[in-house]
Amino acid sequence: MQRGREKPGPCTNPCAIAIGGLLEVLARPWTMHILYILSTNGPTRFGALRRQVEGISSRVLTQRLRGLEEKGIVYREYEPTIPPAVTYGITKRMKDIKQVLDELSRLAQAWHQEDVAEAPAVEDKPRSRRPQESRPQASRPEASRAGSPSHLTS
Fold first, then answer.
1. Is the peptide bond before 83 cis (omega within 30 degrees of 0)?
2. What is the SS3 assignment for 141?
C-alpha cells in the first residue's frame, strides 16, 4: 500500500457536481452539433435535422433528442398529421447556453482559418522517407520474370 495516496471519495462540491451533470449531457457524441443547429436554425423537423447533422443515424439522433428533452434543453412538438410532423427546438434553458455555443463557433472559425492559412506551409515541407533498407522487399521468383519485358526487370 502506498503512503499518502488515498482514493478520492465522492465529489461533495456542488459546483463540480452541477458542471459534471451538464457536461455528461452535452459531451455525448453529436449532442453539441444538434444543439448548434437547433440554436442557429430555429425549430426544425426531425428529417431536416437528420439531414443537417451529416453522418448521424436516425436511432442516435432520436436517443440524443430524447435525452435533451428529458433535461429540458429541447422541446418536442408533435402534430398528428399524415405523415406526423415532429419538430424540435430549444427551450429557455438552452438559450442560456447559446452564448457559449456562439463563442465556441467563433473560436472554431478562427482556428479553422489558422489551419487553412498554415496548410500550404505544411505541404511545402519535404516528407521524410524511411531508409530503403528498412522496407521489407518482396521476393519475386526468377521464373516469373522470364516473360516480362526487359525494361521492367532491372
1. yes
2. coil
Distance (Å, whole) CA 121 – CA 40: 34
- Indicate the fold that domain 15-117 takes in CATH: Arc Repressor Mutant, subunit A (1.10.10)
CB 93 within 8 A of CB 68: no
CB contact at 8 A, 71 and 86: no
φ and ψ at residue 140, rounded to 5 degrees? -120, 125
- The domain segmentation of the chain, as residue ranges, is 15-117
15 residue type, one letter? C
pTM (predicted TM-score): 0.62
Reading phi first (left if > 0) and then psi (alpha if -120 to 50, else beta), residue 147 is in alpha
Top-confidence residue, 93 or 140: 93
For the chain, the distance separating the N- and C-terminal CA atoms, rounded to the nearest angstrom, is: 66
